[in-house]
Design a protein that fits this description.
The structure is a homodimer. Chain A is α/β, with parallel strands linked by helices. The first copy, chain A, contains 18 helices and 13 strands. Chain A has a six-stranded mixed sheet, sandwiched between helices. A five-stranded mixed sheet of chain A has the order 7-13-12-9-10. Chain A has a two-stranded antiparallel ribbon with strand order 8-11. In chain A, a hairpin with a 3-residue loop joins strand 12 and strand 13. In chain A, helix 12 packs antiparallel against helix 15 and helix 15 runs antiparallel to helix 16. Chain A starts with 7 loop residues before the first helix and ends with a strand. The interface between A and B is large, with 38 and 37 residues.
């Protein structure tokens, strides 16, 4: 690290930017130096964020990094959003993995469009540079590829957790898999990144970006900021579309967003405030204090309102709050339940499934098994339970906040 | 292996072709089936041999494989000679190795020309297909490369001896090194090889060629024939230009070739006959028998004459034999020693070095240390020994068969 007098202003910025993040290498001070130099040389920092176009739907977990990116943007730095088109279009050439389907250029473009629409709720997409790494990776020649591969050793790649684990367990690692981190690292060379942001699961890949930049001659290679992975509302596993009950999408209705936020475990309140809202460090401390004495429900309502307002606006957040108080806290059934005509006997699972296409039949069976299906407020664990004409009008509840009326 | 009736003719061919070779997988029988099918379908087999254009000078060690190739050619099969231009032109992109300098296209072409001139002493180059793998490897796109790399796992590559050893010893293996065997293997796909020949040190690479062909959908992937590495005249290490005293080049003078062959250790006689000459298996057995009772010198003279005749013609071989008998066996100094005028005092090393540019000063020092320098038939171990005018005429001998007369 260089000996340089760091100005208060940039140290403060660095502290703010580092909230919740791990800053590598060198931590806050080195970040402050980078910020100061950028200002002195009138050269905005180039902040890199990669996106996976095979999964375009955003949830609150994604916003942790995006909000950090936004902070850099607010300080006048340049955001570079990289659509990982090369990887997505190649898919898994070994054909072994279902999780890496190969996408056409059209699918990538369409997914990227959806993605950018959603992230524009967090950052100013118009001020960002947007690029697709297929544009440069597809133009790499054979000698280019070998040159890239020559910059890293097998042993170094083997230190990546998943490679190390699979190798130790004698599970196959195809050689092309080595190229995924290398491609991502090479992106940093091409876009000349000064800082790369990512989740803590991107530690290896982002630091490799720094190393490959050095190998290609960049004097001040990128720093890395790693943000924690946000747990889903259950507080147990990483928020993910694979667990829709615990996942809060940016496209959720205000009512759902508010309701899901109210369902988080108390232990998540401070973390959600810290990573998902703009409250100051002082407020954050005061919330931590209050949690020791006050009812966490009130703080959760503040959290739910704040976040719902951010993505859906004040009016919708207000309505969602009122609905929540009425339905959940006062156990009332809401007024605006959709009504479905029952013309013949129908199983509970068919009734729900016909109405709500977002749930698969196995989702509904899981809800039944976990006691989350109710008929006229009584639990019903058998999804094949028959709803007959004689029961009309009947109110079916599934999950915490969803109702259908059979008429 | 298929159940197929193998005809005597092809079994005999297979036996002949397999002399001295390891045939993988399936051995002689599978080779016989391949030969028979080729005949039945009137489709000559495609026999692959790769060459390293960074080392264009051929010695007898190289002819072991080339002679085998020639046998296939004589049976009507197609020889495909691949100049490894891609590798040679890339060199070592990590820049760490002195042994993999990168060559220009011109150097590759010029080396290939020298190489083909020399191998035309063994095979009919005009009937062979000659190609340069730069022509296809340089055209590989990024997805092509990933596809190729996806066909093999890290663990498989790690079974290659040198990789395994270096990994175990914590010595770095750069990722691009994985591509060298893959490139060679991919060559087999492109040229659609049925059989690849190589030295036993090429076991991994050639078998990888077979595997990659399968992965790319070839129904009957290539068989592999591995030929032993020929020891140099000392019978200890592999014949190589790095040990010129024990290396017999195809461009050696008939006298040198004959003389060096006479210097081989007795244990090599049968192996040299088997791998370097056309004698029948019956003759070979008879030589083995004779070695038990007769003076090996006579058999060595037969060997030396046979091989010298092959590469230099009958007359030159005859002269070389006569010279050998005169100089070495009868310890006479030959008649035709080059004469050098000595105008002022000169050290022994300068005297030899000025005359014979093929030897470096350290070569000469090594000869001195090993007692191979003589002045007027007396050993002189000091290379700085001063030859003065008063000694004229003086005969300097270096190595076993080289003389200069100072006059």
């Amino acid at each position: 690290m260089e000996t340089i007098k760091i100005k208060e202003e940039f140290l403060n910025q660095a502290v703010m930017l580092s909230r919740g993040a791990e800053v590598l290498p060198g931590g806050i001070e080195e970040l402050a130096i980078k910020l100061q130099k950028s200002k002195e040389e009138n050269k905005p920092l180039r902040i890199k964020l990669g996106m996976d176009p095979s999964r375009p739907d955003l949830h609150l977990g994604h916003t942790v990094v995006l909000r950090k990116i936004k902070q850099f943007q607010d300080f006048g730095h340049k955001i570079i959003l990289i659509v990982g088109g090369a990887t997505a279009m190649i898919g898994d050439p070994s054909g072994k993995s279902d999780t890496r389907p190969s996408l056409t250029k059209e699918q990538v473009d369409s997914n990227a469009k959806t993605y950018f629409e959603q992230i524009s709720k967090v950052i100013d997409v118009n001020k960002a540079e947007i690029c697709n790494n297929a544009d440069w990776l597809y133009n790499l020649t054979f000698p280019d590829m070998l040159k890239l591969a020559s910059k890293i050793t097998v042993a170094q790649l083997m230190t990546r957790d998943d490679f190390a684990k699979r190798y130790a367990e004698n599970k196959p690692i195809a050689v092309h898999e080595f190229f995924y981190p290398l491609m991502q690292a090479y992106d940093s060379v091409v876009i000349d990144a000064d800082i790369e942001l990512g989740g803590t699961d991107q530690r290896f890949n982002t630091l490799l970006g720094r190393e490959i930049q050095s190998a290609y001659g960049k004097k001040y290679p990128q720093m890395v900021m790693l943000l924690p992975l946000l747990e889903g509302t259950d507080g147990i596993v990483k928020m993910s579309k694979s667990f829709p009950e615990h996942c809060i999408s940016l496209t959720d209705s205000p009512k759902d967003m508010y309701g899901k936020l109210m369902s988080i475990s108390d232990g998540l309140i401070v973390k959600y405030f810290a990573l998902l809202t703009d409250i100051s460090n002082e407020e954050l401390n005061s919330i931590e204090e209050k949690l020791k004495t006050e009812n966490p429900r009130d703080l959760k309502m503040k959290l739910a309102f704040t976040i719902t307002e951010m993505y859906c606006g004040r009016t919708a957040a207000k309505e969602a709050e009122e609905n929540f108080v009425k339905v959940v806290q006062n156990k009332e059934i809401p007024d605006d339940i959709p009504e479905i005509k029952i013309t013949e006997d129908i199983t509970l699972i068919d009734f729900i499934s016909n109405f709500d296409k977002s749930l698969s039949r196995s989702d509904i069976k899981r809800l039944a098994a976990s006691g989350a299906l109710k008929i006229n407020s009584e639990k019903q664990t058998n999804p094949a339970y028959l709803i007959t004409n004689s029961m009309i009008p009947v109110i079916v509840q599934y999950g915490k906040r969803k109702y259908i009326k059979g008429v």
